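Researcher: We're teaching a course module on how sequence relates to structure. For the next exercise, students receive a sequence and then see the predicted structure as tokens, so they can try to spot secondary structure elements on their own. Here is the exercise chain.
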Amino acid sequence: MRRLLPPLLSILLLLSILLLASCGKAVPPSDTAQLGTVSGRLLAGPTCPVETMASPCPDEPLPGEVVQLVAGDTVVVSATSDAQGAFTLQAEPGAYRLMWAPEGDVGIRFAKPVEVTLLAGRTVTADLMVDTGIR
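Model: And here is the predicted structure for the students to work with:
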């Protein structure tokens, strides 16, 4: 007798497949000279309730999080931030929204999208700040 996957596991598997399918198209290496690049860091802050000159409270990187370039309602390309919260995305020249795409429950944390304009062969720097809600 075969045992079916628990319902929660089945739902997570289906969501993972849908997420991978929506990650956008890969860009062939030969086209990279015609692409624009955005690079930056995904940072969370504030990270402590009180910050003073003697006890600074720097923003912290968010590793392993998905960052997306969005045009209209379409995710053009996505990437995962590295251990330092750094990410790099490439896309056709144009105007985009750079967005954090959190997975699961993030509580009250949120990140305001950043408007970026990509130009062929150029790199734009844009950080995404995730507000932790700590005050």
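Model: If you want an answer key for the exercise: The longest strand covers residues 36-45. Residues 25-131 form a domain with the Immunoglobulin-like fold (CATH 2.60.40.10).
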